[in-house]
Amino acid sequence: MNVHARLAAASLMLMTLAAACSPQTEKTAETAPAAPAAAPISDTHAFRIGQVEAVALRDGTIVLTNAEEQSPWSAVSDVATVLTANGVTDNRIHLSVQPLLVKDGERVVLIDTGAGGQMGTENKLPASLAAAGVQPAQVTDILISHAHGDHVGGLVANGALVYPNATVRMTAAEWAAMQGENELQPIVRLIRPKVETFEPGASISPAITALPLPGHTAGHTGYEIANGGARLIYVGDALHSSLISVQRPELVNRWDLDSATAIATRQALLERGASQNLLFYGVHFPFPGLGRIQRRDDGFVWAPQP
């Protein structure tokens, strides 16, 4: 079973588990006082990279049980140690999903498109984008880090393009691999006229450069956004978990196509981040995914940006 098929199977399993584990609604006594309304949680987070405007857009959360065949990390005991040491008590791995909106001059750029409601996610991206003041037709460019369902699933909906005026950009290697995946053919057919490919390291827009981060898929790429001396690294799936991937980068992740290369990429990215004090954007890190890598003892930790 290839990595995309495993992800599709994982999506079905997650949705089944979510339905089975949903709490039952209990009848409340008529005399019970009404609970205070919870404060709304913002699904957007605006910030700047130099003078470039950016917005983190919440799409949802993937929740995985730390168990064989349910988590991509097969080293269950090692993962449990990391989770417990960081105060996680439910033995579950929480992976947020938040595409990034970047306004680069006349370009309105969306980096990745979320899961489109698959893999147990909530499909919050359309509402998050609207809350950021952008309509789908205004998006001029979509940059794809790689063609897994939680990054390309939001490209289409109801048999149509969600972003009809956007050019869809990805590495040539990733586009070639995507066209060979049977489960992605409904997406491939619709986006084909819109796709433009590039080579690793290419300049995509005035502020955005593709950053080669090999190993996860055939043409996986991150993106470096630089303006006025400020820099941000969109890490894609070179780093999945702010805990496991950062503190134990050597652990094998079965979602990686080339494990040895992916591990080397993770370690090099963490080293660079810590040495240069770079601002990272973790698409699967706790929302809004902004922070830095810090050295701790003989390893690294994630330091969210306040």
Automatic annotation (TrEMBL):
Residues 96-284 form the Metallo-beta-lactamase domain. The keyword Flavoprotein does not apply. SMART domains: Lactamase_B (SM00849). InterPro entries: MBL_superfamily_lactonases, Metallo-B-lactamas, RibonucZ/Hydroxyglut_hydro. It comes from the Bacteria. It holds the Pfam family Lactamase_B. Keywords: Hydrolase, Metal-binding, Signal, Zinc. Residues 1-20 form the signal peptide. Belongs to the metallo-beta-lactamase superfamily. This is MBL fold metallo-hydrolase.
